Amino acid sequence: MRWLRWGINNGLMENAFKVITPEILNKYVTGKQPWDLGNETLYELCRRHPGHANDQEIIAKIWLIGRAYAAAIERRKQKPDDFIGDDFYTKKVEPQISDSPIDEWFSVLKDIKDVNEENLTSLLDTHFKLMNLFKDISGLEKRSLASKYLHFHFRDLFFIFDSRAVAAIQKLSGKIERTGHYAVKVDDEYRKFCEKCLQVRRHIEENYGQRLTPRQLDNLLLYIADDSFNLKSNPLP
Predict the structure, then answer these.
(1) What are phi and psi of 234, to 5 degrees?
(2) Quick check: 149 and 45 in contact, CB under 8 A?
(3) What would the pLDDT profile of 96-140 be if each residue is shown by its tens digit?
(4) What is the pTM of this model?
């Protein structure tokens, strides 16, 4: 177990939270969004096909989630003897995922209902294993794809990692004091991102009375990542 002490030790973070209002939370975070139907389609795909027992469900999930979220697994270090086009999915991606213990990794998470400081170790452990599997397939880390693939299988557990979310969380997150270490090997970049997400979620819950899901927090981060939300060039009085 690894415990964290979090605090708002940063004037930029305090400034950012003054800009976030209940109206903004209702409109851009917890209210209906243009992408809801598309996202629900991917959630439903993973609900109906949670495992990795056959080639169709493996290819459908890794292909559609990766393409929809600009994290396609075919973006890779290509070797001269590598498979091209559809063969990459049918002859490399699917067999390697099928031969992996991915369903065992996922089974560890089935009874976890919500991400928090106490179960973060298990989530980071699974993310690290999946990221390494995707690295074996593509030659690249695929940190973002691993987070997104896990999110659609476990929507209440995994925060969505990408460059826009990272840029936004840096505007909101204060300094995190590390106390101790995780008992398993984890990806440090995703670990830092998740810790900051939990910090921001807790601050919003304490100050606005809303406990955001990973999807709702992603909506907030996308709103903050917009160019119009620039605290440095447009500071509050």
Answers:
(1) -130, 65
(2) no
(3) 999 999 999 999 999 999 999 999 999 999 999 999 999 999 999
(4) 0.87
